[in-house]
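WARN retry 2 of 3 for item q-0093 after timeout on previous attempt; input resubmitted unchanged.
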Amino acid sequence: MKKSLIYISIGLLVISSLFVSGAMADGRMPLIQSLNTEVKMVSSAGSGVSSEPAYAGDIATVTDMAIYPYGEMSKIVVKPSYSNVRLQPGESREIKVSVTNRGDKTASIDPTLVIQPYTPNYLKDEWVVVTPTSAELAPDAKQDFLVRISIPENADLGYYYATMAFGESDVQNHTMYPVYGGSLEMSIDVWTPPSVQIGTTYINDRVEAGSSYDYEVKITNVGKQDIAMDPEVLINNIYYAEAVSSVRYGGASMAVIDESAITVDAPSVIKAGETVTVKVRLDVPSDATGSFSGTIDLGIDDPALREWEGQVQLYFTVWEQPSETFVREFTTYTDGTMSIEVTTNVYDYGIYGTRSSSLSPSFEVSMKQGGQPVDMQLVRTTTKGHVTYGTSPMEPMTSSASFGYQSTGTMYTEVYEVAGAAGEWTLSILPVNTDNFEYSITTGDLD
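OK item q-0093 returned
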């Protein structure tokens, strides 16, 4: 098809050029006319087509193409073409589907549930009823169908997939996945509310080598049956700050955080109506460096929990309090009071995250003019927080205590003033208990 389009484009260009030059030769302006769809084939070496010269007998005929509105490529237009439904066992849902015949002949519509290859968990025929069961659509006619999905009480939990084909199989465009001339792709999430509520699903902390940190994860069993639990620490990724090859292949001596540095203390059973505490302890090796990404699989025996829902995500960054100051040299050209503002941001994850680092950030700020220290005055400190109210969409796993105000981030700012004068200046900033900051210098003109 692509080759034919190339030949057609070149042929049209040649014909257009001849038409224009002929018209201009006799002094008349060219007119817009329809072009013949038969054109000579032109090819070149290396194009995948024969490099022999084209002959008059080498003719490519363009097939008439019907252009459908809204970019639809099928003569049978199905809207919606995709549906994602979430149902509990015993529930039903109806999907209204409109089918339009964009072709020039009457089409027989026979809705059929088909299973695409490699579908991991397919929707069963007896779960789906379509009304009406068939229809004859004249050109440009539209018919509404009602697709009713009913989940049995004993259905297994999980995702189910299927295709409701309204048109015939498109054999020409068939690859490993059959293509139908008009279809509804369906994804059904069969679920039930979990019996547990997990208070913390994310632990993210900045830690120091040689130190230990303790975290807690509260879990409540709101069901009527006792639930078993068997936590396990899993590694996801270890990111190295330096000497990657030596760490992996035994060159230099450098430790990283791995599962041996994390201890989990948890009961083996959560009784019905009980809230338990899972204690997590991190012992950072004294020569650790880099960052660690891992998971605590709580091993909760609740079939309603998806795999990721019964996990606590871990992310630790090993850092060291900087001893070297950040230095910025600049020049001012006017006198007057100069204002220096330094800000840092601390992020957390509301009800779903926790960290043990509780020390407040601060800054050690100094100024020099022409190499001589000058007096600075701390005139204002500001704490600015970002707060949300309520819970996230993970409501079935959320305890009632999560309703309310949740802090998701805090901004700390210190503002200094100094008697400014035209000249060369040096600003020095040493951050304390923070790994990020931004600053601003407010004065007259400066470089």
